[in-house]
Amino acid sequence: MTDMDADLAQSQVDSLNPERRFSRRGFAMTSLGVGFALAAQPVCAQTVITTDADGLTAGEVKVPTADGAIPAYRAYPAGKKGAPTVLVIHEIFGVHEHIKDICRRLAKAGYYAIAPDLYARYGDATKAADPPSLMKLAAQVSDDGARLDLDAAARFAASDGANIKKLAVTGFCWGGRQSWLYVEATPGVKAAAAWYGPLGGAKTPIPNAAAVKGRMIGFYGGQDKGIPPEQRDAMTAALRAAGDDESKIVVYEDAGHGFNADYRPSYNGPDAKDAWAKMLAWFKAHGVG
Q1: Contact 20, 148 (CB under 8 A)
Q2: Does 173 qualify as catalytic in the annotation?
Q3: How many CA atoms lie within 13 A of 32 on its CB side?
Q4: pLDDT tens across 13-64, in order?
Q5: Which one from 90, 96, 98, 257 is the annotated catalytic residue?
Q6: What's the pTM value of the predicted model, to 2 decimals?
Q7: Alpha-carbon gap, residue 168 to 38, rounded angstroms
Q8: How many Å apart are CA 168 and CA 72, to the nearest integer?
Q9: Residue 190 pLDDT
Q10: 11 or 148: which leads in pLDDT
Q11: Is 257 a catalytic residue?
């Protein structure tokens, strides 16, 4: 274990172990794209939320990992040291403008928010032209790989003055699933919020629900065709069977998949705003605020 890994463990993000190590190839991208992902076009300009960077330190950074640096976007209140940390896990579209804006929204709420590009070794999701290309790219990222890079982002945040003893994670779609997996694998995470992340099948909920330990809130759409009620019910049952009566899944019956994605037709403003407020309240109730 390196000195940096030891520091991370000291800060309660202490789940690094030999099983997490794996072989990686060279980097396919070294900087973030600009604007919205190509496959997400056309953008619904009339509903796009744009959060300014006034009063913030915000922009692209390079996060050191064992085999090089991955690009990430981070934002935090200017001049503030010791801000609680939120790891932001991107959608299948990568770290495009919507995810950057999510970081700025969190920074406006007093957080140090950082979104590493978990596809960096394999390609640029923002340039993928269609869903099959995105799925092929996402399939190359192992769950172990995503966790390692999120660990690295937490270490970077600590080195940048953030407080990772107060650590939360949130993710959207593809990143929603990774949020479940990361909170299960990382005892140092105090709170997590998954937005419409796939939950497996009715008979195969995400494993190790016992490790969630009251830290997760999930936001799901009742009209989401890709995540049927059986998945949500199976996850809730697994949590309850593990003795977790606090973690919960909130269902917005009129919402579909991607209801927080304000740049897409799926956006549901009232439900998105309600879920955002619930997320911030969840973080504070669990000591991240």
Answers
A1: yes
A2: yes
A3: 25
A4: 333 333 334 344 567 667 887 888 888 888 998 899 999 999 999 999 999 9
A5: 257
A6: 0.90
A7: 29
A8: 17
A9: 98
A10: 148
A11: yes
**Three-state DSSP class for residue 265:** coil
Structural tokens at position 141 = 């990222």
- Whether 44 is a known active-site residue: answer no
Question: Which superfamily is assigned to 28-285 in CATH?
Answer: Alpha/Beta hydrolase fold, catalytic domain (3.40.50.1820)
AA letter at 109? A
Q: Tokens 């999510």 identify what position?
A: 102
Looking at 224, 244, 262, 271, which residue is catalytic? 224
Catalytic option among 103, 173, 244, 262: 173
Amino acid 241 reads A
C-alpha–C-alpha distance, residues 236 and 217, integer Å: 11
Sign of CA dihedral 82, 75, 287, 164: negative
Instruction: Read off the amino acid at residue 224.
Output: D
Pairing of strands 216-221, 248-252: parallel
Please, are residues 281 and 186 in contact by the beta-carbon 8 Å criterion?
no
pLDDT (tens digit, 9 = 90+) per residue, 194-240? 999 999 876 777 878 999 999 999 999 999 999 999 999 999 999 99
